[in-house]
Amino acid sequence: MASDLETKAKEAFIDDHFELALHLYSQAIQLNPKHAELYADRAQANIKLNNLTEAVADANKAIELDPSMSKAYLRKATACMKLEEYQTAKSALETGAALAPAESRFSKLIKECEERIAEETGDVSMQMPEALAKNDVPAKEIELDKDQPNLEIEAAPPKPAYRHEFYQKPEEVVVTIFAKGIPHDCVKVDYGEQTLSVAINAPGKEAYHFQPRLFAKIIPEKCRYDVLPTKVEIRLAKSVPIHWTSLEFSREVAITQRVNVSSVSASQRPSYPSSKPQRVDWDKIEAQVKKEEKDEKLDGDAALNKFFRDIYKDADEDTRRAMQKSFVESNGTVLSTNWKEVGAKVVEGSPPDGMEMKKWEY
To answer: Where in this chain does the record put each CS domain (predicted)?
Structure first.
């Protein structure tokens, strides 16, 4: 079953149906959670969808399961470069190049990382606010290998197993994850230049993953964490002593205010951003968003994709299964909502008039 899902995921990726590929890879991983190849391939789908912190986490998992897999290092580096974490990317590329010396992409990307790092070594304090306010990825597009999986699948995000909070000091941010009685060896924490990855896998408890892109850059080698009886406490060393208005990066972030370290006394208490939260009229915001979505005028493929997304979002389980099965088996030429009809047979492709089906070999 897992191998069938993997095959369908690869076919979906080749056809540029990245959301569907991601969904199928996730199902395959649930059935075979120790297969490193699945994590590396899902990382590539996440990169295509710009889910960059998720891509880094998947690549890290693939490396953990199979440290000799060169493409896992390539996927990690690709995601890190899009996140502008060039030091982390370069380290991954150098390891991958040692495993696959004949692969020219490693040396090409290492050179690009070195150029980017050289650009950043100017005035870091002046570059930091500018980097936080950027709305797009680096100017140079990273060349990706297309060896993987637009039926878009929307689902409500699952509620996290543990609650987290943060507070900050002038030179560090302290993240607290409230998890009681977790053994130290069940906690894994990884740091990037602007990413944090926390995985908690305790026996008999639901797996927990927290992978935010951070508000600003940190110094990974100076970060540390402690597993305490009631919580996991993570200390992130700020690269520049600016005030973080939130834990996670936001494109709408305001201009940051630099903290004058010399004016902060040792006895000054750290600030808790959530101690006096402002009241927000969420009902008003939700109504406004719904109105904007309703008033949005789409045409062509965008209108058709939205129509199918709306059907899928409000459909029952059988209808969703019918849509997925018919779309995959027909190579994207049939989309049925009748499970009784498509559930009992293979859905044949139905190309438009004047065109013929072509089977791609993986």
So the answer is: 159-248
The reported pLDDT for the residue numbered 117 is 84
Render 328-349 in DSSP notation, one character per residue: HHTTTS-----HHHHTTSPPPP
What's the DSSP call for residue 274?
T
**Residue whose structure tokens are 């950027």:** 134
- Predicted pLDDT of residue 3: 79
Positive or negative torsion for Cα 320, 326, 327, 328? positive
How far apart (Å, rounded) are the C-alpha atoms in residues 59 and 169? 32
pLDDT at 314: 76
Q: Which of 60, 18, 11 is nearest to 36 (CA)?
A: 60
Structural domains in the chain, CATH included, are 1-120 (1.25.40.10), 161-236 (2.60.40.790), 300-361 (no CATH)
DSSP 119-177: HHTS-HHHHHHHHHT--S--SSPPP------------PPPPPSSEEEEEE-SSEEEEEE
Sheet harboring 172-178: ordered strands across?
Answer: 163-168, 172-178, 232-237, 224-227
Whole-angstrom distance, CA of residue 79 vs CA of residue 162: 26
Tokens of 353: 């008039």
* Confidence at residue 258, expressed as pLDDT on a 0 to 100 scale: 44
Give me the pLDDT at residue 304, please: 62
Q: What is the reported pTM?
A: 0.43
Burial (CB count <10 Å: 0-12, 13-18, 19+), residue 42? buried
CA distance 320 to 312: 6
Paired with 259 in beta bridges are: none
Question: Looking up tokens 């982390």, which residue turns up?
Answer: 88
Dihedral pair phi/psi, residue 109, rounded to 5°: -75, -30
Question: In the chain, what is the greatest distance between 2 CA atoms, to the nearest angstrom?
Answer: 78
Q: In this predicted structure, what is the pLDDT of residue 61?
A: 92
Q: In the chain, which residue ranges form alpha helices assigned H by DSSP?
A: 2-14, 18-31, 36-48, 52-65, 70-82, 86-99, 104-120, 124-132, 282-295, 300-314, 317-329, 339-342
Positions in the chain short of pLDDT 70: 1-2, 122-159, 251-283, 285-286, 289-306, 352-362
